[in-house]
């Protein structure tokens, strides 16, 4: 997937989807930053967003992401909300999250009834943004929901302080196996992808319905923006919609 020399602007996730569902992930091609909050030239960001728009049925429903657990119905008539996940059952509405190491999680179900996009860093995961999103979709059975965990930082690149591990264990001791001691004192390597899978199972998704290709943003920072590789970086987008 990441071996070609010429990078496209958008990648299609290696994810088996119902025929009416489309999903794309933007790359770092020519510093294709889509975020307005990262000290990039606003004109360049707008030009990038315009270029992205050409591939979509409507403007994406962007979020003001704050590592919260707020989940909103995507509605382009409303101002950009403070939220970290959106969902819709409507056709042509594009749910989108921006990331650079955090987990972009896309959701739909086998019959393509809805789409959702979740931004999950460690705080969002620990505060259960995944469960909060699935709660908003309670008319659908989690048993046939399909989840894709996009490019994000892998365990071998994600060192955290012991207080992060402790705050996870304070809410759920079963999360302990997702941390291994770092070579550095009082630090741990955190498997956010593993925690996300675990949280998806806890919400009722089945293992065979979770696609988690473990593409690391930091290891592949020529392809993806990575905050841990360089804090002064752009953001890529993961987008999903019903046709
Ligand atoms: Zn890595």
Radius of gyration: 17 Å
- Strand order across the largest sheet: 4-5-8-7-9-13
Count of helix runs: 5
**Which CATH architecture is right?**
4-Layer Sandwich
Q: What's the average pLDDT? A: 96
Percentage of residues assigned to helices: 10-25%
- Estimate the strand proportion: 15-25%
Description:
The model has no long low-confidence stretch (mean pLDDT 96). Strands 4-5-8-7-9-13 form a six-stranded mixed beta sheet. Strands 1-2-14-6-3 form a five-stranded mixed beta sheet, with no helix packed on it. Helices cover 19% and strands 25% of the residues. The two termini are 25 Å apart. Bound molecules: zinc ion. The site of zinc ion has 6 residues, from loops.
Concise synopsis of the structure shown:
The chain is of the alpha+beta class and 243 residues long. The protein is 19% helix and 25% strand. Strand 11 (179-181) and strand 12 (187-190) form a beta hairpin.
Which short descriptors sum up this protein?
243 residues, alpha+beta, CNF1/YfiH-like putative cysteine hydrolases, 6-stranded mixed sheet, 5-stranded mixed sheet, 5 helices, 14 strands, binds zinc ion
Helix and strand topology:
Elements: E1 10-11, E2 21-26, H1 42-53, E3 60-61, E4 71-73, E5 85-88, E6 94-99, E7 103-109, E8 115-120, H2 122-126, H3 129-136, E9 145-149, E10 159-161, H4 162-171, E11 179-181, E12 187-190, H5 192-202, E13 210-211, E14 236-242
